[in-house]
Design brief:
The chain is of the alpha/beta class. It is 28% helix and 23% strand. 48% of the residues are buried. This is AMP-binding protein.
Length: 525
């Protein structure tokens, strides 16, 4: 019998979060490392009260541009914090923000606009002259809104400055409140529909965990502005009065002086960025010295990287929190690492479900009890689960098993009840128990590697793709020693880190990488 504690039925409305936070913590600082395209005059150092006023202002401008309650506003523009501001502004007038990654190509965006049936589109000059140049936007979008300029066929937010402010539109909690999209590794991405109540469900475990932090810490975040994680993270931090540092430019040489100046106590970013930031441990400015809590959400992070990051902190007993979750469900399972256990930890063990809030079971594949050698399908229950895929409800329901949601991952639970995630079901290679475990092990043995990805070769053999620091040639002797336990591996292929195809949250797109490698091997074979 599952003990489930239902989440609050108070809707979490993105459009009023800054205003509610400002009522309690108006002077809390919000620091950016870049200017906002839609509000360059706002500068890089705001307060929560200033953020709330900016959202209210942009909401008034969107209303003046013709955006109305219940309508869709697709946001597809250069990566910038103004995406967050504009999404909250759209929510404030009752519209549904649809967050499209700047990395999507034009045909994919066109297909998503068609699926949305002529939404309003907020974009910029760069996208209009490049990715969107081949689309008939007059047919695909009801209105095309841009931050500034006077391009024919568009409405400029800059020209609507001073539009009358309006009271927020408070829609029913079951109404769609936000749409994000999946990675689209197997075709056009799915549009994931969140309601204000499902957002409250995914907010709850995050708020609970941050509530365990007893002192006011500065939170530095470098994650995608089109991922729901950014919106939940800021909802929690702003409500609790934590100062926030928002990072767009994640290169270590740019991050180091910013972190050294703001001295965050909490840091969160994508796994790929953590790999790069590990070098900050040895930086003369000691930018990680004040970090008490590191947080990782988007994908498992290799234990050696975690160990090195923790070694850069001068705080007593720093912790690295690892969360396992999904765009459709939010955080589901958690564990933490310390300086003592990180290096030797099993990176496939992702911890326990969050008591009373999230639940996990593992369903047998082919009738066999789930074990490491025979992993089962991981299914979850959470109040934070999205309600459907927009215009693809049948596709959504295919992943439901009663009240349980099939994540698409395979794994098992050990005798202590801990969840072990071994692979994505679509990434399983028959001759390998877990591609991710092999990657963790070999990365722990070879300091010169930045990344290692195991994909199926032309004959389904496990094919290692390696990326080294500074693209230095891989030492074949050291490689052979490191993979002695894995004789089934093919000879490695070396690529620059920049050539790995990635999602908006910097996960490696393994299916796309496999396709590219097979094409390359066919050409050279």
């Amino acid at each position: 019998m599952l003990l489930h504690l239902p989440a609050s039925r108070r809707p979490l409305r993105l459009g009023t979060i800054p205003e509610e936070a400002a009522a309690r913590h108006p002077d809390t600082p919000l620091v950016l490392d870049h200017d906002m395209d839609a509000a360059p005059a706002a500068g890089r150092e705001l307060t929560v009260a200033g953020l709330a006023d900016l959202v209210d202002d942009m909401a008034a401008r969107l209303w003046a541009a013709g955006v109305r309650a219940g309508e869709h506003l697709a946001l597809y523009k250069a990566h910038n914090f103004d995406i967050y501001v504009l999404a909250c502004a759209a929510s404030r007038v009752g519209a549904v923000p649809v967050l499209l990654s700047p990395a999507l190509d034009g045909p994919t965006v066109g297909a998503l606009l068609d699926r949305l049936e002529r939404p309003h589109l907020l974009t910029d000059e760069g996208k209009l002259t490049a990715e969107l140049a081949g689309l008939d936007l007059a047919e695909a979008a009801a209105t095309v809104v841009v931050p500034s300029g006077d391009r024919p066929g568009t409405v400029s937010l800059e020209s609507l400055a001073g539009a009358p402010r309006r009271a927020p539109v408070l829609l029913d909690g079951h109404h769609p409140a936000l749409m994000t999209h999946t990675s689209g590794t197997t075709g056009v991405p799915k549009l994931v529909v969140h309601t204000a109540l499902s957002l409250r469900g995914r907010y709850r475990p995050q708020d609970y965990l941050v509530g365990l932090i007893r002192r006011r810490e500065t939170y530095a975040v470098h994650v995608s502005f089109v991922h729901s994680r950014m919106y939940m993270a800021l909802a929690v931090m702003l409500e609790r009065g934590m100062p926030v540092v928002v990072i767009d430019h994640g290169a270590p040489d740019e991050v180091a002086p910013l972190l050294a100046r703001t001295r965050p106590g909490i840091v969160e970013t994508h796994p790929n960025s953590y790999v790069e930031w590990a070098d900050l441990v040895d930086h003369p400015l000691r930018p990680l010295a004040n970090v008490k809590y590191f947080s990782g959400t988007f994908d498992a992070i290799h234990p050696p990287t975690i160990h090195k990051l923790l070694s850069g902190s001068r705080r007593t007993n720093p912790l690295f929190f690892q969360f396992y979750g999904q765009s459709e469900c939010g955080p589901l399972v958690a564990r933490w690492y310390t300086k003592k256990n990180a290096h030797s930890a099993n990176g496939r063990c992702l911890g326990y479900p969050l008591p009373g809030m999230t639940h996990v079971r593992v369903v047998p594949r082919e009738g066999r009890r789930p074990t490491k050698r025979s992993p089962g399908h991981i299914e979850v229950r959470s109040d934070g689960r999205a309600v459907t895929y927009y215009a693809e409800d049948e596709r959504y329901r295919q992943e439901l098993n009663g009240k349980w949601w099939r994540t698409g991952d395979v794994g098992y639970r050990d005798r202590l009840g801990r969840v072990h995630v071994l692979d994505r079901a679509v990434d399983v290679i028959p001759s390998v128990d877990s591609t991710l475990e092999v990657e963790d092990t070999v990365l722990g043995r070879l300091d010169e590697l930045l990344e290692l990805v195991l994909v199926p070769g032309p004959d389904k053999e496990p094919l290692p793709v390696v990326c080294t620091k500074d693209n230095a040639p891989l030492d074949p002797v050291r490689w052979r020693r490191a993979v002695l336990d894995f004789p089934q591996l093919a000879a490695p292929i070396q690529l620059p880190l920049s050539e790995l195809p990635r999602t908006a949250t910097m996960k490696v797109q393994r299916i796309e990488l496999t396709r590219r490698l097979h094409e390359r091997l066919e050409r050279t074979g």
